[in-house]
Design goal:
single chain, alpha/beta, L-arginine/glycine Amidinotransferase, Chain A, 3-stranded mixed β-sheet, globular
Length: 311
């Protein structure tokens, strides 16, 4: 199984803003005072367009889907939370914590992929779990080591343990389960998505091990990564707050590998960390300040990787 892909889907926002329904447990969101909603959305669109341009310039196959004003979907820019695409032709649809995020799931996006020649053999639909208040938010909650058949998950109100195990059984992954925390006003609170504290590449992992408060769990996670010969690049909680954990390794033209991140993530890294990362792939960064502040997500969240077979 491949760990990286050249094909991604990105959703261009039309009504981006801070989502009040996700702010209850996403402590990375901020209110940008004094900005009209239209200004926030315009800034997000500018950041989005510049990001897409940078990805396409190095040969990444980006399918851009326009969001629609028919639904109130302020977080549609983060498609990786509701869908994942797999090499066996299967698509997984995930149950979402925020009610207004459930409307992001659009079947027409799957049609667009099929028109591009991607093959979809089956849809694994976990969304009925929403009725029971159970959530698992795609590759926000799941860090998939596709090549080694492992899935890492930091449990949270948006990542249910039983449903995670069910996903692992369905897709043949060995589950690696832990809890990750961040400091909020002097309290340790669960990090809402695994992908803000961890990024898994083909030959490396970026991880904030300090966020795993339980020492046994931390040791278990790091031992799993070492067993698969990943170079472990440790980041701090301050760097997590700059979205340094929210990176993604993808492929451009001629299969060249890139580690994609935001400018704020890039600027938060030390020279040593940058050198470590660059020994694995070239860094590609883009300014996502508005999207990060209002959305509480960054570069990785904006890209849904497509691993489907092509006919």
């Amino acid at each position: 199984m491949k760990q990286t892909t050249n094909s991604i889907i990105m959703i261009r926002p039309v009504a981006f803003r801070m989502n009040e329904q996700t702010a209850v447990n996403n402590y990375y969101q901020k209110v940008l005072d004094g900005l009209l909603p239209s200004t926030v959305n315009a800034k997000a669109q500018q950041e989005f367009d510049a990001f897409v341009e940078k990805l396409r310039a190095v040969g990444v196959d980006v399918t851009v889907i326009e969001d629609t004003l028919e639904t109130d979907t302020p977080d549609s820019i983060f498609p990786n939370n509701w869908v994942s695409f797999h090499e066996n032709g299967e698509v997984a649809l995930y149950p979402m914590f925020a009610e207004n995020r459930r409307q992001e799931r659009r079947e027409d996006i799957l049609d667009v992929l099929e028109e591009k020649g991607f093959e979809i053999s089956d849809i694994m639909d976990y969304t009925s779990a929403e009725e029971d208040g159970i959530f698992l938010e795609g590759t926000g909650s799941l860090i998939l080591d596709r090549a080694n058949g492992k899935a890492y998950c930091a449990l949270s109100p948006r990542a249910d343990e039983e449903l995670f195990i069910e996903f692992c059984e369905d897709f043949d992954y060995a589950p690696v389960i832990f809890e990750a925390f961040q400091s909020v006003d002097g309290e340790r609170k669960l990090i809402y998505h695994t992908n803000v504290m961890m990024c898994l590449g083909e030959t490396f992992v970026v991880i904030c091990a300090d966020s795993i408060d339980d020492k046994k769990e931390r040791k278990m996670v790091l031992e799993n990564l070492k067993a698969d010969n990943k170079e472990i690049i440790l980041i701090t909680e301050a760097q997590v707050n700059n979205f340094a954990g929210n990176m993604l390794e993808i492929r451009g033209a001629n299969d060249k590998k890139y580690i994609v991140m935001s400018t704020s993530a890039h600027q938060s890294l030390t020279e040593k960390q940058i050198t470590q990362l660059e020994s694995h792939a070239e860094i590609l960064s883009s300014s996502l300040d508005t999207i990060e502040a209002c959305g509480g997500g960054s570069a990785r969240c904006m890209m849904a990787e497509v691993f489907l077979p092509k006919n």
